[in-house]
Amino acid sequence: MRTRPLKVALLGCGVVGSEVARIMTTHAGDLAARIGAPVELAGVAVRRPAKVREGIPQELITTDAKGLVSRDDIDVVVEVIGGIEPARTLITTAFEHGASVVSANKALLAEDGATLYAAAEKHGRDLYFEAAVAGAIPLIRPLRESLAGDKVNRVLGIVNGTTNFILDKMDTSGAGYSEALDEATALGYAEADPTADVEAFDAAAKAAILAGIAFHTRVRLDDVYREGMTEVTAADFASAKQMGCTIKLLAICERAADGRSVTARVHPAMIPLSHPLASVREAYNAVFVEAEAAGRLMFYGPGAGGAPTASAVLGDLVAVCRNKLAEATGPGESVYTQLPVSSMGEVVTRYHISLDVADKPGVLAQVATVFAEHGVSIDTVRQTGKDGEASLVVVTHRAPDAALSGTVAALRKLDTVRGVASIMRVEGE
Amino acid sequence: MRTRPLKVALLGCGVVGSEVARIMTTHAGDLAARIGAPVELAGVAVRRPAKVREGIPQELITTDAKGLVSRDDIDVVVEVIGGIEPARTLITTAFEHGASVVSANKALLAEDGATLYAAAEKHGRDLYFEAAVAGAIPLIRPLRESLAGDKVNRVLGIVNGTTNFILDKMDTSGAGYSEALDEATALGYAEADPTADVEAFDAAAKAAILAGIAFHTRVRLDDVYREGMTEVTAADFASAKQMGCTIKLLAICERAADGRSVTARVHPAMIPLSHPLASVREAYNAVFVEAEAAGRLMFYGPGAGGAPTASAVLGDLVAVCRNKLAEATGPGESVYTQLPVSSMGEVVTRYHISLDVADKPGVLAQVATVFAEHGVSIDTVRQTGKDGEASLVVVTHRAPDAALSGTVAALRKLDTVRGVASIMRVEGE
């Protein structure tokens, strides 16, 4: 074993960073044996240097992140500060000074992964980011490496623990969205400002990363169709139950049937209770991958939290250090298919639509005509009436999302349709 | 991209080998893009050269496997013939002649992995074997690489599809073992001689491989406690249901509580219906991994079959080819912890015991005394009587397996115990 240590600079020492530092110290012997050389924490860049950080010598703490990543003796930079800047500049600076980078930064990778990959490649260094998607669950490495000899056609997953916790609460307790969000906040599952989670920005970033890797093409955050889950109601869950379904916020990346394009989207959807994703409870994450030869695989585990995310960071750290010792690099960006990303309108899916309608003869015929005019075939209709009001629940067969949303727009214009109570896509069948 | 192709020799062209060859041909462009050089099938060693193999040029077929792996122009040897010899000699010969090896041979790796690893290391080549455990499910790579910065404490899995199919049939249809086995055979899930599956030799080999990698120590097939599932009865399933459990054939690899030893075992066990492994149906495989930082992860997918296994082989092929181009090697054998493997007697588990007893006063007291004398604490007892006969169902708290089996031996000697109807371990709680 090499005795000279590999030097690691840590950017950020919050929930994840402090766990990374702790494990590097407490498991130093194991890490050294697995890498083939000791690893040494050479510096920790933080914003608040005065804060006491147990187990981290004060002399390692610095507020000068730029200076830290510019040191020529640093072998690996671990970036767990998140956000676009200064993270991007710090990472590219690290590459320029000869370090490899392990990052957990989903937002930056989804926004501008290409810049990071290009800098890594230019300087012959590694960019690893298992922790950016689904916390501790090995997903990036299986997609980039285990399935490198296969053709992935679909990735379907629950990649945000906060929203899964909220939806699970709504499902099991009958709570409304606000009530379930309050509970998630009280238990620390939701942040004070939950926007990134509940409006699905977080899940959309992960979908972009997964789609890019799965289909070997470039997918940016802007390419991902995004719908949050703040408008899911207890009534939607009641409808889902009648269908034998539950509701999950899903990230779905698909190759088009003709193989010539891909799509990536994040939205709430009904999935059958028999689908393995339906039983993913609380803040857990799980991702289904469908590949041509492998068939259907599922990866399940804690999708967030300090220790699980640190586990993913440290797995990458070991890999990057091994590569460094071997003077090699792991897989870089793979975008050779150059498959374009289609818009949401081209996605083929099913709709579950609840309509409030006038309770008089001919309404169903009128509604059915609108579906037919848009080329949307109806799977089932359920009609209920009470107190002069009636409701229609229509579940469609698979059709392009544009045709389905066109149908809904036309339905809204019918005099006999008093309102569209809810629209939900149906997936996982 | 390098234009000179990497040359691959394929040993075996059965269910898996023919799929490997097919995908190498049909997806040649994708593989080349992902590797950075084309790969070329340079020879296929088979036993029956006259058999027509669609898509494989006849001039590539040879019966001289030894000659094929001795060619100095071969970059990678893919071994899918199985068994100990000639596979072992062919693999070590391949290393001697400069090739790296991708193998799906669980029996050989469990029996004598050390010899293969040593040969790979001596010649600076790669030994990859994702396909040896749980078919297409990425498991070896996540354990070797993704969790390389974590501490795995437990691996608990369903790693044999044939027996899971049989047990699932028994559970859902109430069928007996023979009937379920017949159905598995008719559907092609069980081989004409099902011994390797039903007596758990196959699962034991996989447990040895998983334990060695998870705990960074050497675990051989002989170190694995093994019990087949041919004696599981419909009555056992009925008992399991009363417990809120089902029965699965589990491979369990554990680090002892004091961290100083490990155990590996394969046997049928009751697991609670709420455990994710309980809902693994048909011939699917699933493996739970518990790690200190990552928490509980699960990997699920098809555990066997030509295409899924080929997917795993080709993922390894891509990795090994990339390493070859980079003049590097992936992770080798990691046995630095040198943790000893304890015997089954030291495993801490729970027993579910059904006893046929005399229906007279004092029997329960007598039985309870035997448990107490062996230091085994009873969790629940259920007593039922009919027609002068009575039965006792005892579920214990956790205790060393030696104490539990000592208890059972002592119970058999009691005059009032007419027979031990069944003994089953309870896991996954």
From TrEMBL, chains A, B:
GO BP annotations, alphabetical order:
methionine biosynthetic process; threonine biosynthetic process
Q: Which SUPFAM superfamilies match?
A: ACT-like, Glyceraldehyde-3-phosphate dehydrogenase-like, C-terminal domain, NAD(P)-binding Rossmann-fold domains
Please list the reactions this protein catalyses.
L-homoserine + NADP(+) = L-aspartate 4-semialdehyde + NADPH + H(+); L-homoserine + NAD(+) = L-aspartate 4-semialdehyde + NADH + H(+)
Keyword Oxidoreductase found: yes
Taxonomically, the superkingdom here is Bacteria
- Record: residues binding NADPH: K106
Q: What is its cofactor?
A: a metal cation
Q: What is its EC number?
A: 1.1.1.3
What positions constitute the catalytic site? K206 (proton donor)
Single GO MF annotation: homoserine dehydrogenase activity
Q: Name one Pfam family in it.
A: ACT
Associated pathway: Amino-acid biosynthesis; L-methionine biosynthesis via de novo pathway; L-homoserine from L-aspartate: step 3/3; Amino-acid biosynthesis; L-threonine biosynthesis; L-threonine from L-aspartate: step 3/5
Residue ranges of the ACT domain?
Answer: 352-425
Q: Which CDD domains match?
A: ACT_HSDH-Hom
The residues that the entry says bind NADP(+) are L11, G12, C13, G14, V15, V16, G17, S18
Q: Where does L-homoserine bind?
A: E191
Give the keywords, sorted: Amino-acid biosynthesis, Metal-binding, Methionine biosynthesis, NAD, NADP, Oxidoreductase, Sodium, Threonine biosynthesis
Q: Which family does it belong to?
A: Belongs to the homoserine dehydrogenase family.
Protein's job: Catalyzes the conversion of L-aspartate-beta-semialdehyde (L-Asa) to L-homoserine (L-Hse), the third step in the biosynthesis of threonine and methionine from aspartate.
Query: What is the official name of this protein in its record?
Result: Homoserine dehydrogenase
Organism taxonomic ancestry: Bacteria, Bacillati, Actinomycetota, Actinomycetes, Kitasatosporales
